[in-house]
Amino acid sequence: MAIKAFQRFEKKFILNEYQYKSLLPILYEYMDPDKYCKNGENYNIYSIYYDTEDNHVIRHSINKPYYKEKLRLRSYKAPIGENDKVFLELKKKINGIVNKRRATLTLKEAERFLEFRERPKSIDYLNNQVLNEIEYYLGNNTVSPKVYISYSRNAFFGKNDNDFRVTFDSNILSRRDNLSLKSGGYGDNILSSKNYLMEVKILGAVPLWLSKALSELEIYNTHFSKYGNEYMSYCLNKTYDIRRQNIC
Fold first, then answer.
1. CB 28 within 8 A of CB 208
2. Of 102, 228, 240, 246, which one is least surrounded by beta carbons within 10 A?
3. Structural domains of the chain, ranges and CATH numbers in brackets
């Protein structure tokens, strides 16, 4: 989790319970579990996404533009103290290639930077470069905390290629209130409890053995954005509430 900058392709798949359990033994043959998946257990991810008042960032994103970017604050533990480590990330996608820039801060430093543009003192060159990029982004986009998303993750790295990664996310929850990392993960389900979001993250082509396994298990590439699906669900619920009020 010390990675600060990288770029890669990301392919997404939705798996049912049978497909997930059938694929795992194959992955163990060619891949190693993430070091944070201790004793076969998942780890958790907690994120706050930033957007404009009219949700321009996510509305632009779901239209599948050539270029898009998102700002989020992320933690791997909750509840969290103000001096605990968090990650401020600017995720960009250019013609299908994902580039993620990450600054490591304390929660207090991140909150003061986002709210008051107060730069933390750091001698880390790359950290400062990422903060420069995020500062530029904030100067051109009036954003604020908009959505909290948390989930449980099982992750693997290629035995002979650390740039090749496969992750499974489940129990994906979201909310639009109480937007604090200290509050922990709770909210509405974005994905069915019996499904898993698999992401294949790689610099080149998908390995032949994985392509063969996906074909045999009838697992097909799809488009799924956690924030995007949350926003579409939010819009549907909002439309329903408006219609209900008009009827009443």
1. no
2. 246
3. 5-247 (3.20.100.30)
